[in-house]
Amino acid sequence: MSSAADLRAVALAEFATAGYTGTSLARIAEKAGLAKSSVLYHYASKEVLLEAAVTPAIDRLDAILDDMARAPFTSEARAAFVERFVDFLLEHRLEVHLFINQGMSLVDVPVMLRANALVVRIADFFANSTSSIEERMRFGIALGGAAYLLVSQQAFDVKTPIDETRDALVTILSELLAPIRA
Questions:
Q1: CATH number at residue 91
Q2: Mean pLDDT for the chain?
């Protein structure tokens, strides 16, 4: 294993498993079958490697939120958001694991500040797009719960087929996030 992409994958798995502070460049090099100097050839520091590993997920979530903010939040927009959010969660489970479990303890790491800002941006969007505290809480519980569920499945090695997981999450989130009728 020698590519920068391979190193990012190994590092992401280690950061999610052992934690950012509990992971060393030497451990990443060992897991990748390389010398530490080879890791440093590609990435100048552990922080740079973390940034390279999680930036694609942050950029994707940022794009989802940008698209959501551009148009009125209709039923169709809500449905599209649910599908994109579920796909994001499924594709970026390890990154979401880091954001959920380590985001607040890594506030001195710039890339995690960016991730934390996106979480706040999601909360602000729904606070401004919903008409009641119940709807805001419903969004927070639904989105946070879906993210935590997938992180837990990853941590406990639960093997549910991806298509079944996706379909179930889209259905459940769509039901939970349906507009509340007065």
A1: 1.10.357
A2: 87
